[in-house]
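Training component of the fellowship. As part of building independent skills, the fellow (R.M.) carried out the full modelling exercise for a liganded target. The chosen ligand was S-adenosylmethionine. The inputs are recorded below so that the supervisory panel can assess the work.
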Amino acid sequence: MKLLKASRVGIGANDVTRILILCERKRAKPHIQCHHGNMTDWEASYQQGETPWDRGEAAPALAEIVEKFPTLFKGRILVPGCGLGHDARWLAAQGCEVVGLDIAPTALKKARELDPTHRVEFTQTDLFDLPKILLGSFDIVWEHTCLSAMPPELRPRYAAAYKSALKPGGTIVGVFYLNPDMDPGETGPPFAISGKN
Ligand SMILES: C[S@@+](CC[C@H](N)C(=O)[O-])C[C@H]1O[C@@H](n2cnc3c(N)ncnc32)[C@H](O)[C@@H]1O
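Fellow's submitted model of the complex:
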C-alpha cells in the first residue's frame, strides 16, 4: 500500500476538500470481472456469491491509514458501495458514526446480519440519488473499490455525489486501483484508473 497523494483540492466554488489517495497495485486475490456490457449487475453478483472483491474482512488499508494518520477517522463517515459492510463495521468499532450505503439489497441484508448490535446504519441507496438527509452531513467519505467499479462516464457524477455528501472541508479517503500490475491470467477491477484520469 502506497500513499500516492495527500492534497487539499477545491472541488467546489466555496469549499476545499482534502483527498487522500491510496494506491494498491496488487490485490490479495484475482478480481473476476462480472459486469454485463458496461454495467455490473451487482445484485445478481451478490445473489450468486460472485463477489471476488470481498475480502471477508475490513480492507487492510484502514489499519495502515490509522497508523499514519491516527486522528483521521473521526466524526460521521459515509461508506459508499459498502458491500457486506466490513469496512463500515471496522470504522464504527473505532467510535465513528457510520452510514454504509449500497444499491444491492442482498449485500445489505448480509451486512446487517454481520452487525447484530446495529452499530452501522446501512441504507439501500443509489450513490447518484442521495436523499436530502444525507447531504452535507459527513466528515469523511471512505471508499474501497467503488470508483474502480464504475464506468468512466459516471466519474463526474461520482465526484459530484461525494462532494454533496461531505460537509465543507470534508475528506475523501479511498483505495483506488491505479494501473494494477497483473499476473498472466489475472484480471483487475472493471474500470481501473490511470494516472491521467
Ligand atoms: C467492487 S464492489 C466493492 C464493495 C466493497 N466496498 C468491498 O470492497 O468489498 C462495489 C460496490 O458498489 C456498489 N455500487 C455500485 N454502484 C452503486 C451505486 N450507484 N450506488 C451505491 N452503491 C453502488 C455495488 O453494489 C458493490 O457493492
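The panel noted the following from the submitted structure. Residues 1-16, 25-38 have pLDDT under 50 and may be disordered. The pocket of S-adenosylmethionine is lined by residues 42, 53-54, 80-83, 101-104, 107, 126-128, 144-146, 149 (CB under 6 Å).
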